[in-house]
Design goal:
The protein is 68% helix and 6% strand. The protein is mainly α and 313 residues long.
Length: 313
């Protein structure tokens, strides 16, 4: 969609380029679905919590962004005279009732979308590689060989999926906004003022990207499955499903380390994820960079950050 979400500590903002060309910015408190602050201090568990929160907030932002274009389609001649008498505005109680209904509907939509997305991910990246590897590896009796084959299939499916979606026209525009998001963060972290010109000159690749996280999820799952052997397919699949939260938690710790460390080994581990971002990001134009800047400025005082950083150096 035509928007970008930025989060900073307890706040998040979404900036959207509306059909009329103007930029709408919405800010809100970042409330965890699992509201247990102590979990944020426990490695792996904090990764599970952040993974769930990211999915929920991401879908909310997509819904918010899409709402502007739904309104445009439903009211293409808004602002023009319709020739019909205007209907009376609903009273306060009716408005409140409508808001409650919309809130419930949005919640159901989020739950349904998350459930569908997780089921499809499990089928595509777990069920298909598991059963396909068993079929192709019928002549191999060694569990390790079957595990290696399954790992190769899983990585191939993941890369094929990324390549296919990166070629879709609508997705390419979304990926351009993704690139604008990274460019803004890199611009600030490199000590430059957040202007459209500086943003466009910055790199569109970043070590803390969600794409890198997905890459680590695949690799960590491959490592885990090397130590899980069962002749029963359903039992093996069940164990893999139970390990999903653990895999997400471990992957989060790796990408968290990558974001705060410049150790040569960490940089080497980050390279495949950065390479993969060349598929999931595109070079944005000036208008997309402007949207990203609005999102950043809604939750982050980059001027104060640059001043303090300058004083430290």
């Amino acid at each position: 969609m035509e928007g970008i979400m930025m989060r900073n500590k307890g706040k998040y903002a979404i900036a959207v380029r509306k059909p009329d060309g103007e930029i709408d910015v919405m800010t809100d408190d970042y409330k965890s679905v699992i509201n247990v602050p102590s979990l944020q201090k426990i490695p792996i568990l904090r990764g599970i919590v952040n993974f769930i929160d990211s999915l929920v907030v991401g879908i909310r932002c997509l819904m918010y962004s899409a709402s502007f274009f739904e309104e445009e389609e439903e009211n293409p001649s808004e602002g023009k005279k319709s020739g019909k008498a205007e209907t009376a505005q609903p009273d306060g109680d009716k408005k409140e009732g409508q808001k409650e209904e919309e809130k419930k509907s949005d919640t159901l939509f989020i739950v349904g979308t998350l459930t569908f997305a997780l089921v499809m991910a499990v089928v595509l990246f777990m069920v298909v590689p598991l059963f396909l590897s068993r079929w192709l590896g019928r002549g191999f009796s060694t569990p390790l060989v079957r595990s290696v084959l399954e790992s190769a299939i899983r990585i191939a499916v993941f890369l094929a999926y990324m390549i296919v979606i990166s070629r879709l026209k609508d997705i390419q525009r979304t990926f351009a906004y993704h690139g604008a998001e990274h460019k803004c963060i890199n611009c600030i972290e490199n000590g430059r003022e957040l202007t459209v010109e500086n943003v466009l000159l910055s790199s569109r690749l970043h070590k803390r990207c969600g794409t890198s996280f997905l890459f680590f999820v695949i690799i960590v799952s491959v490592i885990f499955q090397m130590f899980i052997h069962s002749e029963n397919r359903l039992e093996q699949l069940g164990i893999r499903l139970l390990l999903i939260p653990v895999i997400a938690g471990v992957s989060y710790e790796i990408i968290r380390l990558a974001g705060i460390s410049d150790h040569p080994l960490v940089n080497i581990l980050s390279k495949p994820g950065l390479a993969l971002q060349k598929l999931t990001t595109r070079e944005p134009d000036a208008s997309q960079a402007e949207v990203a800047i609005h999102a950043v400025e809604a939750v982050f005082d980059w001027r104060g950050f640059l001043e303090n950083d300058g004083e430290k150096t």
